[in-house]
Amino acid sequence: MNPIAGLNVITFFLYIAALVLLIKSILRKHVLVGPGFFASAALITCFFVCVSNFLEHSGISDILDDYEGFAKDLFVMFLLIFLYVDSMHKEQTKREKDQKRIQDELREKAFLLTEIHHRVNNNLQIVSGLLSMQGSGRGTENISEALRIAQNRIQSIAKIHQMIYDSSNLLQICADSILKSVIQNLEVTYKTDSSKISVKAEMDKDIKLDPDRAMPLGLILNELVTNALKHAFFEGEAGEVSVRLEQDDKNIILSVSDSGKGLAEPAVLQENVGIGMKLVESLVLQIRGNVRVDSKQGTSIRIIIPKEGKQGLIFSLP
């Protein structure tokens, strides 16, 4: 057999194998019917050229030789149509994916906008509640001090709020960045009053919080550190306030301890405690946590909140 005829036989069977694989892909919907049809037509024209070359070079007949050029033109035409249809399909698929992505982004933005309104409303309720609480306890302290405490609480809310919306992920925020911001704000506020008192923080950077727990936990820290800076030490006494944020398998634990004089009473959050501790009690209940106090050496307060169970923040007076 003429070598060229032999090569055409081999090529013919390769084209058959390619056509079988293409038909299976079309039936399994791995290839669309439109592009698959034109690819199949192009392969069939290749069969004709192989048969024509085999007959010619084996000396059997050259009857198909006159139509070989036409078959090649058909092959080019079907190939171009296949490329066009395939490119149109890819463009349509890309357009559909882009439209779906845009729709998903619009739904996400609508959800985030609703969340923003929800949180702004909650924050306004918190501010209103704080001012109401501060006003009810005004007889125990002068007006300027009461206003400074209320202003400091509102500033803490504003800072936490800003950090939440500056975060790349509005649903999970790094707890350490929020709590450190609260501590820095307090150090600036009480720098003169507590110049001999240092605040040290040790926080697990892997702890993430949803905004419904980040805001109250920041306010809790604000109250605990404020109480330590104002009441834990005698006037002019040097000391240290330690803040620690850690986690175990089930809980997130916030600890605030000081080296001061300790509590006169070991019980906490009774009717005779200050507004700040009442606020702490209210916020801890809202995030389904609990408080543990140790006043044997200085004062140590641990806030333990469960990792599971997200709940909305609705401020209420204790």
Automatic annotation (TrEMBL):
Q: Which GO terms describe its molecular function?
A: ATP binding; protein histidine kinase activity
Q: What is its EC number?
A: 2.7.13.3
Q: Which residues cross the membrane?
A: 6-23, 35-55, 67-85
Q: Check the record and name the InterPro entries matching this protein.
A: HATPase_C_sf, HATPase_dom, His_kinase_dom, Sig_transdc_His_kin_sub2_dim/P
Q: Where is the Histidine kinase domain?
A: 115-309
Question: What is the reaction catalyzed?
Answer: ATP + protein L-histidine = ADP + protein N-phospho-L-histidine
Kindly give the Gene3D superfamilies that the UniProt entry links to this protein.
Histidine kinase-like ATPase, C-terminal domain, PAS domain
Keywords associated with the record? ATP-binding, Kinase, Membrane, Nucleotide-binding, Phosphoprotein, Transferase, Transmembrane, Transmembrane helix
Its name, as the record gives it, is histidine kinase
